[in-house]
Amino acid sequence: MARPRKGSREISPVASHRSALLARRAEIRGSLAAPPEEEPLIGQPCDEDQAPALHDVFVVEEINSRSRQELLLIQRALERIENKKYGICLDCGEPVPPARLRAIPWTEFCVTCQEEWDRSRSAIDAFPDEAA
Ligand SMILES: [Zn+2]
Prior knowledge:
Four Helix Bundle (Hemerythrin (Met), subunit A), binds zinc ion
């Protein structure tokens, strides 16, 4: 009885992350190429407040810039795969847990470093919460 050979059928985790990255990149590129769905909310003339319309434009811009940001991260992740550095935290150099890579294949940091980042950013964005 011949044992099934290892290797040919086995998909390495990096290869599966790579295909996830490529799929996500195609998805984002598709959404960027498509014109934004604009539904002009005409019905109520709002002469004293133009904020809603401006807000919509802002939201579209926000989504576009986020998509571009994500594209950049995906591109960099693909480059790291090429350089055999994929899955290594850019900050501390420790391996990023596989579960995290599966959830966010383009992540650049391990959980600890990402939390540090988020904390330092939210410290700027929000003012301190005074929980009693
Ligand atoms: Zn780290």
